[in-house]
Amino acid sequence: MKTNVTEFIFLGLTQDPMKKKIVFVIFLVFYAATAVGNLLIILTVKTSPSLGSPMYFFLTYLSFADFCFSSTTAPKLIADSLATKQTISFNECMIQLVAMHFFGCMEVLILILMAFDRYVAICKPLHYTVIMNQKTCGNLVILALAVSFLHSVTQILLAMSLFFCGPNVIDHYFCDLQPLLKLACTDTYVINLLVLFNSGIVCITSFSVLMTSYILILYSLRNHSAEGKRKALSTCTTHIIVVVLFFVPCIFIYARPPITFPVDKMVSVFYTIGTPLLNPLIYTLRNAEVKNAMEKLWSKSIS
After folding, report:
1. Tell me: the pLDDT tens digits for 140-199?
2. CATH number of the CATH domain containing 122
3. Quick count: other Cβ atoms within 10 Å of Cβ 21?
């Protein structure tokens, strides 16, 4: 790949010195809460025998993906809010692009695995332990990692096919293909279509599959007892909230033509930093088993 650019300059969320200080404080708190919340969920599940079901096995990987996904953008945003010039080297930009899409895709696939787990548990309860055994769950996670790797490799190959001849100011706070395409000195029509297919169509298809699966699950609950229906409905509602919070902004960003909107940065903030923070809160506040396990873990730590 040939390029005359060795670094990119981020415009970030704001150029106002006072607002940048506010950004630093807010997102430092957000990122710290995200890290603590997701790592606490992983620790709780790993140390609690009562959370040994496949659902919580997948939840640990979702929390891991959330933590890593947030870590690809938040630390740089926080550091840049104190810097006079917000720059990133070309190689670091490519690494950030790969990491963000790897962990973003991983989160999508783990959400699909969690939906599949709930479908089997509710619609085929007699075969649940046979279908969702430990080996199968492990293989499904490995498959998710492999697909995430392929997706991120595709993104970097598209980025590396671009030629940058001089403009290096990115009107964003992280490296992604859409803002990079605006700086390319080559015709990007075909690459824009490939980005739309690779990211946009994947987001829409995944969201449609997830919502369809939960509709089928909710429909099947009509034959369950009142207690079973209440518990399953509570779990599925939690999952649906997480799915909607992640996919709606994701679809808004990736499943559209290359047009810039004023709200793009705020939507990106919500799905790269906000959602990883909200996920542990939602799973903790709406899940009695996780809350009880955390209380026991806390009691042990202070005793």
Report:
1. 999 999 999 999 999 999 888 888 887 889 999 999 988 898 898 888 888 888 888 888
2. 1.20.1070.10
3. 12
The total number of structural domains that make up the chain? 1
Q: Which residues form the domain of 275? A: 7-302
In angstroms, the CA 156 to CA 151 distance is 9
Q: Report the 3 state secondary structure along the chain.
A: CCCCCCEEEECCCCCCHHHHHHHHHHHHHHHHHHHHHHHHHHHHHHHCHHHCCHHHHHHHHHHHHHHHHHHCCHHHHHHHCCCCCCEEEHHHHHHHHHHHHHHHHHHHHHHHHHHHHHHHHHHCHHHHHHHCCHHHHHHHHHHHHHHHHHHHHHHHHHHHCCCCCCCCEECCCCCCHHHHHCCCCCCCHHHHHHHHHHHHHHHHHHHHHHHHHHHHHHHHHHHCCHHHHHHHHHHHHHHHHHHHHHHHHHHHHHCCCCCCCCCHHHHHHHHHHHHHHHHHHHHHHCCHHHHHHHHHHHHHHHC
Residue 1 placed within a domain: no
